[in-house]
Amino acid sequence: MSEDIGKLVLRxxxxxxxxxxxIFKLQNGVDGVAGMLTAHxxxxxxxxxxxxxxxxxxxxxxxxxxxxxxAVVMAGNxxxxxxxxxxxxxxxxxxxxxxxxxxQGMYLFASxxxxxxxxxxxxxxxxxxxxx
Length: 132
Hints:
Helices cover 65% and strands 0% of the residues. The protein has five helices and no strands.
């Protein structure tokens, strides 16, 4: 049972923290992301994909439905964030001595862990869910 509780804590903690970024974008739009995309020669319409990675996927992870797929989407969202907004900081140390991208890294690696571990029994999909 402690394994399933650990998966629940990881899912809910990571999902809620990423979802808060998505809620901000729902309230304020994705113009900043669109600008970064066009600066890299990509179509600005791709900015709406952030809603999948920061709203839909975290909600699915929190409730434990299609958890592995949703976690892969969140990890992909973080890889895109690294590429668009954080490449200059990739090998930097922050003012407190940690990696400058430790928050983004934590989101990325937690999402990968969720994708590998699945949702566990304490989820809507349960352990019988094909993608949980």
